[in-house]
């Protein structure tokens, strides 16, 4: 037997906009983050500013980590009703371990010092030759 998902309207979510009851709607899911206010790394003010609202855009603009997204599951209490849902894509996290990224960074890491060395050599020779 599967648990039934509780559905909410944006009007219901809007009623929970204080530090005593703080609900957010992110990606059509409804979260009760009241108990998380004091633990939020960005401070409770950030959550209270979005309390009772559709907060997907604000959430994605910050660029939350995978850990933060996993932690959200704990606070999910339901979903928006079908007629009020919006499609807002999740921002993908950059893959810092990709080989393309490593190769590009490796190339950049030696190119600048090389160019500076060549430039310094030309400047030194120019002034050294001028002084003779």
Mean pLDDT: 84
Query: How would you spell out the order of helices and strands?
Result: EHEEEHHHEH
Main-sheet strand order equals 1-5-4-3-2
Name the helicity range: 40-55%
Gyration radius, in Å: 26 Å
Structural class by helix and strand composition: alpha+beta
Terminus-to-terminus distance? 93 Å
* Major sheet details: 5 strands, mixed
* Helix run count: 5
Instruction: Give the strand content.
Output: 5-15%
Stretches with pLDDT under 50, minimum 5 residues: none
Count of distinct strands: 5
Any idea what the shape is? elongated
Describe this protein's structure:
It is built from 5 helices and 5 strands; from the N terminus they run E-H-E-E-E-H-H-H-E-H. It is an alpha+beta fold.
Question: Helices and strands in order, then pairings?
Answer:
Layout: E1 7-8, H1 10-14, E2 17-18, E3 21-26, E4 29-32, H2 44-50, H3 56-62, H4 66-72, E5 76-80, H5 99-131
Parallel strand pairs: 1-5
Antiparallel strand pairs: 2-3, 3-4, 4-5
């Amino acid at each position: 037997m599967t648990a039934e998902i509780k559905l909410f309207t944006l009007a219901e979510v809007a009623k929970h906009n204080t530090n005593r009851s703080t609900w957010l709607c992110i990606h059509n899911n409804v979260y009760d983050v009241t108990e998380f206010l004091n633990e939020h790394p960005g401070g409770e003010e950030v959550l209270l500013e979005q309390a009772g609202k559709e907060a997907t855009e604000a959430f994605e603009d910050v660029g939350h980590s995978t850990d933060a997204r996993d932690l959200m599951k704990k606070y999910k209490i339901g979903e928006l009703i079908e007629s009020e849902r919006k499609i807002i894509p999740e921002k993908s996290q950059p893959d810092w371990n990709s080989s393309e990224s490593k190769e590009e960074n490796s190339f950049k890491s030696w190119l600048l010092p090389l160019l500076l060395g060549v430039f310094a050599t030309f400047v030194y020779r120019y002034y050294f030759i001028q002084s003779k």
